[in-house]
Amino acid sequence: MSAFINHFSFEFRTGIRNRTLLLMNYLFPLGFYLMMGFIMPAINPLFLDTLIPALVVFAILAATLLGMPDPLVSAREEGIFRSYKINGIPSISILTIPALTTILHLMIVVIIITVTAPFLFDAPLPMNWVNYALTFIAMAVACVGISLLIGVISASTRMTVLWSQLIFIPSMLLGGLMIPYDLLPDVAGKFSQLLPATHAMNAFNGLAMGAADYSPWGAPWGSVIVLTLSGVLAFALAIYMFNWDRHNTTQRGHPIFALLALLPYVAGIFLL
Amino acid sequence: MEDIVIEVRDFRKTYGDFVAVDGISFDVKRGEIFGLLGPNGAGKTSTLESLEGLREPNGGSMRITGIDPTHEPRKLRNIIGVQLQTSGLPESITVDEAMKFFCAYHGVEPRYDLLDRLGLEEKRKAQYHQLSTGQKRRLALGLALAHNPSVLFLDEPTAGLDVATRVELHNIMREQQDEGTSIILATHDMAEAEEMANRIAILLRGKIVTTGTPMEITATGAGLTKVSVRTQGSSLSDPGATFPAVSQHVSKDEYDIYFSTDIGPTVSAIIAHVQARQDTLIDLRVERPSLEDRFLEITTSGDAQ
C-alpha cells in the first residue's frame, strides 16, 4: 500500500512539475474558461446556462485526451516501463495511478470553475450537486479510459496527437459545448452521440443543471451509463493491450481492438 | 561443490527468422564478476533481458538462484538489481523520490546512504533531467543496489564517467563481490572487463566463442607477444638481425617491434645481437596480448568454437 501511495504522490506532483501536464491540467482549461466566460455570453447570452458544464467538459477533454497519452508513449519509448517492470511495478499501477491523479487534478479545476463562474460571469450553479458530481466522475472515467487506450496503442507520440484530435476536435464542434445539440443537422447529431462530450452535456444538463428538456433523445441517466461503461471497457482494454516496451514482440491484441471501447456509444445510438 | 547462482543451458532467442542467441550455456558462481562481451548484435542484450525476465526464451533454460525468470517474475524482482544502460526514470523525478519510489516497491527502507556514497548528496533534490550523464549512471547503480540483490546486472556501468567516478564504481563492485553478490558485467570496455571480471564469455553471432578467466582467454590466442626495442646505434637494422620465433617485425618511432611466438629465445637473441655489435640498449619492453587484442582477433576472424 505504501508503494501505491508513494507512486500516487509522485505522479500527482508530476502533473504540476511537468510543464506540458501543468498546461493541460490547469493553464489551458482555466485560460480557456476565462476567455470563453468573458467572450461567449456577449455573443450568445444563452451560453451562460451551460457555461459551467461546457467548461467542465472542456477541462476533462484537455487534461485527458491532450495530456495523458503522450507521457505513456514517451515512458515506453524511453525504457521507463522496462525499469518499472524489472523493479516489480505492476502494469495496473502504471495505468491506474496516472488515471487517478488526473482525476484529482480535474477535481481541483472543476471546483475552481464551479466556485468562480457565478461571481465572475453570473453563471447559474448546478441544482443537483450529487448528479453533478456523478456526471463529472462518469465523464472523467470515460475520457481517462480512452486516453489510456490511445497511449497504449499508439506507436509514437505523433500518433497520439492524431487519435486524440480525432475525438477532441469533433467533441468541441459537435459535443454541445459551443453549439447546442438541437441546432445540429440530424446526421451530425447522430454522429455526435459517438462522442463522450455529447453524453456528458446531455447528463449535466438533464441531471444537474435542471434542463431536462435539453436533449432531444433524453435519457440522461443512459448517458451516464454509456460514459461509465465505455470508460471501464477502455480501461480493461488498455490493461489487456499494455506493452512494456517497443521491442516487445508478444504484444496482445491488434490496435484495432481499441475500437471496442466505442461499443457503448454505438449501443446508445440505438437504445437511448 | 561450487555455489552456482546463475545457470544458463542451451538458451536460444529468436525474433522471427532472426536467431539472436543460438544455444548458449554458462554458469555464474556466488560472488563472481562475470563479463559478457561481444560486438553489437552478438546477443548480449537478448541474453541479459531474458535473465532479467524481460524476454521469453525460445529454447533452453535459465535459473537465477533456482528461480525461472520467465515464469516466476515476482520472486525474481527482489533477487536481482539492474543498472540499465538507458535512463529508465521519468524526467521530473528527484533523486530522493526515485530512491523512495523503487524501495517502496521492493518493500525496503530507502537507502539514502547509497546516494551519499555515490556522490549524489548535493543532488538529492535535483530532478532527473538536471543530472549529468555520470550522475544518472550513479543513480541507476544506487537504485539497483538499494534492495541488496544477490545478482547485479550492469550494462556499460562506467560509460561516460570520469576517472574518479569510475574508480569509485569499481570499488563498489568489489565490495558487492566481497559480500557475495554475483555480478554480470556487459561492457565494451575491454580494460574494465580485464580488470574486474573473474571470468569472461565472448559472444559472436549468438554463440559463445570463448569463455574463461581474462588470463586464459588472452593465452589461448595466436600467442604473439610484442617486444619493443630501442638502441643507441643501428645494430637492429643489420641484415643479420633476424631472431628466433619472430613472426613479424615493424619499425615505428625509433623502436623495432617484434611479434614473437616464444618470448625467451627472442629476447635473449636480441640482447646478444645488440651486445655483439657493441651497441647500447636504451629500452626494451615486453607486452603480452591484451584482452582487447584477443577480442579483436576473435571477432574479426569469427572463429566459433
Structure description:
- The complex is a heterodimer of chains A (272) and B (305).
- Chain A is mainly α.
- In chain A, helix 3 runs parallel beside helix 7.
- Helix content of chain B is 32%, strand content 29%.
- Chain B has ten helices and 13 strands.
- The longest helix of chain B is centred in the middle third of the chain and has 16 residues.
- Chain B starts with a strand and ends with a helix.
- The SSE order of chain A reads HHHHHHHHHHHH
Overall number of strands of chain B: 13
Spell out the CATH superfamily of the largest domain in chain B: P-loop containing nucleotide triphosphate hydrolases
Q: Helical percent range of chain A?
A: over 70%
Flag low-confidence runs of chain A. none
Shape of chain A: globular
Give the helices and strands, then pairings.
The complex is a heterodimer of chains A (272) and B (305).
Chain A (H helix, E strand, L loop, with lengths): L1 H16 L1 H25 L7 H16 L2 H9 L2 H7 L4 H31 L7 H25 L3 H18 L11 H7 L3 H13 L11 H22 L21 H9 L1
Helix pairs in contact in A: 1-2, 1-6, 2-3, 2-6, 3-6, 3-7, 3-8, 3-10, 4-7, 4-8, 6-7, 7-10, 7-11, 10-11, 11-12
Chain B lengths: L3 E12 L2 E12 L3 E5 L6 H8 L7 E6 L8 H5 L2 E4 L11 H12 L5 H6 L15 H13 L5 E5 L7 H16 L3 E5 L3 H7 L2 E6 L2 E6 L1 H6 L5 E7 L14 E7 L2 E6 L2 H14 L4 E7 L3 H11 L4
Parallel strand pairs in B: 3-7, 3-8, 5-6, 6-7
Antiparallel strand pairs in B: 1-2, 1-4, 8-9, 10-12, 10-13, 11-12
Question: Which descriptors would you attach to this protein?
Answer:
heterodimer, A: 272 residues, mainly alpha, 12 helices, 73% helix, globular, B: 305 residues, alpha/beta, Rossmann fold, 2 domains, 6-stranded mixed β-sheet, 13 strands
